[in-house]
Structures are given as structure tokens and as C-alpha cells.
Specification:
Number of helices: 2
CATH superfamily: Autotransporter beta-domain
Distance between the termini: 198 Å
CATH architecture: Beta Barrel
Strand order of the largest sheet: 1-2-3-4-5-6-7-10-11-14-15-16
Organism: Bradyrhizobium forestalis
Largest sheet: 12 strands, antiparallel, barrel
Number of strands: 16
Strand content: over 45%
Protein name: Autotransporter domain-containing protein
Radius of gyration: 53 Å
Keywords: Signal
Order of helices and strands: HHEEEEEEEEEEEEEEEE
Structural class: alpha+beta
Length: 389
Amino acid sequence: MRAVTMARFDVRHLSLAAALTATAALALVPLNARPAAAQASECGSECGEPNPSPSPTYSPSPSPSPTPTPSPSPSPYPSPSPSPYPPPSGPTGADSSGNSIGGLANQRFNQMITNRVLGTVLLGVNEQINCSDCISAFGSAGSFSAGIHGRKELTNNLSLLAGIAYTQYNEGGYKITSAPIGAFALRYDFTDWGSSRPFFDVGTILTPWEKARYTRSYSTSLGPVSVTSSTNASNYAVYGRAGWMSRLSPRDEVAASIEVWQLWQRVSGYTDSAVAFNPFDASIATGTDRTSLVKIGGQWTHLFGSNIETNINGGWVQSFAGHSGIVATVTGNGVVVPTMGNQGWFEYGGRLGFRVQKGWIVDLFANGTLGPQPVGNTIHGGVGLRINY
């Protein structure tokens, strides 16, 4: 009986122990499964192996319907269109090259005026209005010139003034060489009117041929450019003069006059000389420069003692109706035609003569201009030997 009772007791206890053991095992299963799942997920993300546990599926959430976007209104400022001109790939300076043609026009105007000033020396600009027949040989510097001139009385009232010279000169970028100048004029002096009387001149100055060199300078983005080119030129002038002279005393003569001139200058065509750097070269066509002048002036001649003669003369000159004959074709600019405005300047002259013996006179003389460019300030001086007969 006791044995049976103990057996029953043991069976109960065993059943209770088994139940507790099963309960504990069931409680430990979820705890062990969670680290394993975490381990598997961690290895899957690190090792790139697929997760053996099935991934949960998600039902797509309903997306909202798109809101219509209004079309953009056109901007009041138009977008810039691409420039049809490509950016410059070479040096700049075409405008400066075109402007340099105006400098050539100034040089050629100065050339006309200088040629005329030198020609008036041959017409006795530094001598008195009325005097005996004479001939003078001279040479000058400033502009080199050498020649002869004189006067011859044809009648009691009419005289011939004439001269010829070889000259060369330069001023403001140009240079003239091998230039013969000839001049002649007729003077009508109303000697029968007494010591105070009118007089009239008509004459011409001719330079049929001369060598000319002109310099054209301009600036570029790579530096300055200066080109000197050679060509041929010629100068022609005609004039008329009306004046009044008075013999104040046997030692003094004064005169006032007005002159009208017409000048022409013919220059042969040429192209820029070859230089190392000249990106905007030019070619100049054959052309004729011209201008008209009016001069109002006066002079005074005085004898000091019996051996020293002096003369001073001067006047204001105004140009008008000027025209430049330059027609230039310039790279980057096309055809360029400069204009020539009216100019005004003062001309002066003087002579100091020494009577070394009867009829023989040594003269020192000077002539020039005073004024703005393109005429500018110039002076031409020299010495001469004059013989009265």
C-alpha cells in the first residue's frame, strides 16, 4: 500500500515537473528566435546574403493626383540672342589706323603751305615794292634751298619777278626731296601817280616733280605702328595781289596789300611699305589736294645810314574751300576719306642787308609761319648775295 502510494506521488511529481519544463521551453523559444533574426538581418546587410525569412509585403498607398502646373508667362525682357560677330581673334586698332589717314591729310596740307612760302622768296617777298633791276643768288637752311631770283624792269610801270631753286624740307612726319621750284610774276606799279600809289601782281609758283615720304602712325593692342612710304608729288599755285605803297622818305617805303591764292597738289598713289608689324595696312589712291587762301599783310623797308638795309613783312592768312585728295583703303575700316577744315595762321619774314660795295649786298633773311597745326610754327632762313645793276 505504501509502495503504491509513493508511486502515485512520484507520478504526480513527474507530471508536474514535465509541465513546468515544457512551459519554460516554450517561453525560451521566442527569446532565442529574436537574436537569431537580428543576427540573420545583420549578416544579410553586411554579407550580402539573402534573408531566409520572408519579407513582409506592403500594399501600395494611394498616391495623390498630380496638381496641374500653370504654364510660365513670357518674360517682358527678351533673352539675348547670340551675337552674329565672333569675338576678335587678332589685335585691335583698326579705328586708330583709320584715324591716321587724317594725319596724312594734315601732312599734305602743310606741304602745300611750305611750298608756297618757299616760292614767295623767289618773288621778292623780303624786298621793297619798287627798286632797280637786280639778281640774287641765295642758300637757306631750316629747309635746305639754293637758287637765284631777281627782277627786271620791262617798262616804267611793268616789272618781271622770277626765280628758280632746288629745295628739300620736312615737317610733321613728311619729307620732300629733289624738289625744283620755279616762280614768276608780273608787277604793275603806277609810278606816274607819285610817291603814294597802287600796284598789282599776278603770278604762279610751280613744282612739277618732287619725291615725297609720308609717315602714318597708329596704335594697336599689341603696340604702336609707324609706317613711312614713298611716292611722287607736284605743286602748283596761282595768285593775284592788289596793294598800295608809299615812299615816306628816301629811306622808307611802306606797303599794304591783299592776296588771293589757289593751290593744287597732286600726289601719286601708293601702298604702305613693308614693315615687320602692320596688321591694318592701307593703300592710298592718286589724288589732288586743293585749297584757296586770302592773305592781308604789309611790309616796311628802311635804310640805316648808307650801308644797312632792313625789311620786315607779315600778314594773316585764311584758307577756305579746302579739299583733301586722299581716298584710302584701310584694312578693318574700308574706304576712308578725310575732310579738311578751314585754317588760319600768321606769316612773317624779314631781311637784313649789308652793302659791301656799290651794287653788291649781302642779305640775311628768314621766313616762316605761326599758328596751330597742321600749319604750325616754322622758320626758313638763309643768306644771299644780291647784285643791283
